[in-house]
Design a protein that fits this description.
Two copies of one chain form a homodimer.
Chain A: E1 10-17, E2 20-27, E3 30-34, E4 36-38, E5 40-41, H1 51-56, E6 62-64, H2 66-71, H3 75-80, H4 84-88, E7 94-96, H5 100-106, E8 108-112, E9 117-120, E10 127-130, H6 132-142, E11 146-148, H7 160-183, E12 190-195, H8 201-214, E13 218-221, H9 230-240, E14 250-252, H10 258-266, E15 271-273, H11 276-282, E16 285-288, E17 291-294, H12 314-318, H13 321-329, H14 333-359, H15 363-376
Parallel strand pairs in A: 4-15, 5-6, 6-7, 11-12, 12-13, 13-14, 14-15
Antiparallel strand pairs in A: 1-2, 2-3, 8-9, 9-10, 16-17
Chain lengths: 382, 382
């Protein structure tokens, strides 16, 4: 029996409509249609959902968190168990972050040096060192289809000097990440560089130029969705995407709301990840065609209608608002499960709608119709 | 279009093997093969599982808790929303308890009087009164295929006088429950009486005799699994089942472990409910052919084998012990979901095995083989 060789990693732009792009990524574990949204599987699981549940929402790729997985159960352990795809029973593409962002946000006593970032594990207080080379090694052990370089991510607002220093360090780490990745390069697997530079145009441009010279498989825009207003974020996205090569995928990290996604796709972004649909789902919030709906609100208590009778996802068409309200008020696990599914399915249908609209060159109309429907708000109460 | 009329409630014994019975219950929402295990859907949901998940474990009937549902979201509300089947999207049979047991175990300031039990809601402290008539009204509003009489359930050990008093009160409440049920009787719906009498043979006999004279659709054995040793419980079951009419189903309430189920079926019980498979699943314990397995144990951390490669349930065959260990240690919701499914599926396969063995008149062999395999314990560590 001959084993099929993985295809080389590739990205093609199939259509454009203004700055918006309709594309396809090919990885070792299959294709991803872009613009794409990646559900977050922090600890080797999209919280509460089976891989079949995640697939049923329409997701073609999920994100895994290097920081969490390196601490528990450990990258070497996952590798010995056949890699992250096998471990979590998800046979489709996986992108892993580098761990850098969560070192900054979750761990104590972190110290960023030239060579490495050193921190205490939030689990047991153990001192852990993460170098750009180790971040790549971990992601290779996990078997990520798309790995990310280690970078230093600051909260905004920050001083320009500090933003410049972190950006420069991230560039040197990009170089080391690239070298480490290439020593073990395998067909079908990719490494993305991350553009930093905070809210400063010149720094973003310097970061993008230097990364492009290193020739990554794709480029992320990092350091956003860290507290700045949406307008600031979208301006930086709009300024940054034209600096990036058209023939490589562009990934806006950690973004965002449905409105963020539409606006960022309009500015040329191809890939997204965010915890919002699952985290907010666990707290009783549904994302729908009618905008965000708080199921804890008493107005749903007697409402026999489903969240969205025309949703492509079974759960959104099946369960009554009254039942989802009840599960939310009673803090029942099934409420978290169903709303996570419903929200991920809404995000995926939004992405599918954008892809179709770009293909038909009616993206602006799609965005107008979609935001107008959000603005009209939820169905009137019964 | 003519709507199909529900069949009358019925029970047939199809085969016997010693005291063990293989039977079939017909209800307004379909058939239930006995001996049957009913997963517990306390607040209108088997915790963490969709109805499709529950069905995939092999369950044909679930239990709903009157106490919880009457307090939240309320019986009238559920009725207005189309009944409990519609509310929780479970189209198959539902049995509801009367609320009595949980009034005793969960609420404060309960006061048992001749007319009613009065208590404070554990949710908001509101004073609520539950009469036998209201317990039936609630269960009718919920649309339970099988309703239970209100009874008073004591913890064991208890004084004989106290047991006798509670049993006598439960008989008077049985009479009132029966009368209330008959004023609204509908085809396909059933009411069960509950034999009380603690660990006293004469009191159990008196209770059974009086209930049989009232002619219920089925008979439960209540007041067990409340702290007494297994041997005491099984002795009472063995003494009680011969007092009950052969042509009516027998339901042992709140029981139990896989071993309890085998021993109780051997003594002539047809129906069970218990939170063990789901509650213990939420705490990292799996019930399997190899006995109970604690997934939190470090010996599973590197074990790539599934829990049971020959299980009829996909999850038990698919996910590695290492992954289930990881989910358990990381307190991930998916661990609770998967182990609840796996445990319910094991319980259902145990019931199916017993049904098949009784049909083939080799029930004793089946019990010996099953308990011998439990005694051999889990697979040796890798």
């Amino acid at each position: 029996m001959t084993r099929e060789m993985p295809k080389p990693f590739s990205f093609r732009v199939l259509k454009t409509d203004g700055a918006a792009r309709r594309g396809e990524i090919v990885t070792a574990h299959g294709e991803v249609q872009t613009p794409a949204f990646m559900p977050v599987g922090t600890q080797g699981t999209v919280k509460g959902l089976t891989p079949e549940d995640v697939r049923a929402t329409g997701a073609e790729i999920v994100l895994g968190n290097t920081y969490h997985l390196m601490l528990r159960p450990g990258a070497e352990r996952i590798a010995a168990l056949g890699g992250l795809h096998e471990f979590m029973n998800w046979p489709l593409p996986i992108l892993t972050d580098s761990g850098g962002f969560q070192v900054m946000s979750l761990s104590d006593l972190r110290k960023v040096g030239e060579r490495a970032v050193t921190f205490r594990s939030h689990l047991d207080g153990a001192v852990v060192e993460l170098t750009p080379e180790r971040a790549i090694e971990i992601q290779t052990l996990l078997g990520a289809d798309i790995a990310m370089q280690l970078d230093e991510c600051l909260k905004l607002p920050a001083m320009r000097d500090e933003i410049a220093r972190a950006m420069q360090l991230s560039l040197r780490w990009a170089e080391r990440s690239k070298r480490a990745f290439e020593t073990n390069a395998r067909d079908g697997y990719a490494l993305f560089g991350i553009v930093q530079g905070g809210d400063d145009h010149a720094l973003r441009a310097e970061s993008a130029r230097a990364l492009i010279a290193m020739d990554f498989n794709g480029y992320a825009i990092g350091g956003l969705a860290v507290g700045e207003p949406q307008e600031v974020m979208l301006n930086i996205v709009a300024e940054t995407t034209p600096m990036l090569p058209a023939e490589r995928p562009r990934y806006l990290m950690g973004v965002g709301t449905p409105h963020d996604l539409i606006e960022a796709v309009a500015r040329g972004v191809d890939m997204f990840d965010c915890v919002l649909p699952t985290r907010n789902g666990r707290h009783g919030m549904a994302f729908t065609r009618y905008g965000a709906i708080n199921l804890a609100n008493a107005r749903h208590a007697n409402d026999s209608r489903p969240l969205d009778a025309e949703s492509p996802h079974l759960a959104a068409r099946t369960y009554s608002r009254a039942y989802l309200h009840h599960l939310t008020k009673a803090n029942e696990m099934l409420g978290a499960v169903l709303l996570s599914c419903i929200n991920l399915a809404y995000y995926q249908s939004l992405m599918a709608g954008m892809r179709e609209a770009i293909g038909a060159r009616r993206f602006a109309d799609f965005c107008n119709d979609t935001t107008a429907q959000w603005a009209r708000g939820d169905l009137p109460a019964l």
